[in-house]
């Protein structure tokens, strides 16, 4: 049954009518909103008091979660159950951060030892690189690593590598990391001239090992190495490539020997994969110790998600607030605003996590939904956004809900030391800006005409105790679980992504037409003329 056919949905709709004309600022008249509408767990505080909700709203939303059997679903997820039915798979990303003593079964076998064996292999590779023991074909120490991957094989690793860039240990080599994802090669072509082929290693990162974007970039990187190193291809691959995939056959076929392959489970979705072998570049960047701290932070959030009551459960609350905003307040757009320059890739990472997971219209029992599912997710580093698009947030005609994300404390380490006071001062400034923006969005002002701010715009503030591998791990797991709970309530499978497959097929067909020089006429008038226009105007 579609969730909106349940009685609780109707009750929530009626309740919305009670609240719809009330300005959020008047909800503050009752006092103690922060006390009633904030929750804390594992170093993260969620303040949702600036949302357009009352205690009654919260209770009804919790009823909704109960109706949708969210607790049962959480147990299934956390025990690695068969829940990705449309892809005929179990869901096992949380197993990647489980400790050695955990027991999670797949096909009658505990998969935890396999996961830890893969982590050990990864750790060996990371240590060889971090201690200057991995050499290129000419005996030179590797100084630069390029991750070639796209989607989940790029966004998560890039986001975390940037978020935790201050966590490189002093006792290991400072390896430069680079990312190339785009099929046009522009990123790779930009990077290559600044790299020394003797000291560069590429990670060929692709869950399927069939993604054309990644294949094409890896082949280009190989051509570059072959041209510069003058050694046989297999020797070059041994010294300058590591493959990360679930598809060992394809890795072997491409010429990677077993030592250069890191394997992971099919049951880990691409956008949920940074916690294992796909996170290799993260571990190279921040060291294996810090990578394990990242996993333990995610595991802390998993434990909270598994054990906290629904009303105290951070991911559940975040999910319910999102549902309230999109399904009842009809706010179709949600902006993520990290107040930290190092979290600049968080919005694009969350775009894939949320939109690829929940941007769906067909339920698990094949019904077409008649309610909104995932909103449009977008975002930018908050302080920069203030000088760009906040105008629309404050005075535009579109409704947008916001997540502000900021840490209480800045990085512990800062060099040179004499800049510490400046860092602390700048950090207070960023906190002040963050709090000011959410306050204005909620309150508005009484000025007239062009200076009028309406206020009444809902936001949540996610306060991190600090930026550390553990807290970042917890933060990302918080969002993963939020997405899961929303998928459960909407009745959709958050773990497939059929909506990207047709594009791949048609792109292949279009490429054949474009390279063969015929076949354009059978396409629609726009596509066929675009192709012909290119044929007539392309320079080479
Ligand atoms: O096309 C979408 C997608 O399949 C994502 O789900 C995935 O993260 C990305 O492509 C990359 O896939 P792969 O890691 O298999 O190359």
Automatic annotation (TrEMBL):
InterPro entries, alphabetized: G6P_Isomerase (IPR001672), G6P_Isomerase_C (IPR023096), Phosphoglucose_isomerase_CS (IPR018189), SIS_dom_sf (IPR046348), SIS_PGI_1 (IPR035476), SIS_PGI_2 (IPR035482)
A single GO cellular-component term on record: cytosol
Enzyme category, top tier: isomerase
PROSITE patterns xrefs: P_GLUCOSE_ISOMERASE_1, P_GLUCOSE_ISOMERASE_2, P_GLUCOSE_ISOMERASE_3
Enzymatic reactions: alpha-D-glucose 6-phosphate = beta-D-fructose 6-phosphate
EC id: 5.3.1.9
Chief place where the protein resides: cytoplasm
UniProt pathway: Carbohydrate degradation; glycolysis; D-glyceraldehyde 3-phosphate and glycerone phosphate from D-glucose: step 2/4; Carbohydrate biosynthesis; gluconeogenesis
GO BP term, pick one: glucose 6-phosphate metabolic process
NCBIfam families associated with the record: PRK00179.1
PANTHER family noted in UniProt: GLUCOSE-6-PHOSPHATE ISOMERASE
Protein name in the entry: Glucose-6-phosphate isomerase
Organism the protein comes from: Candidatus Johnevansia muelleri
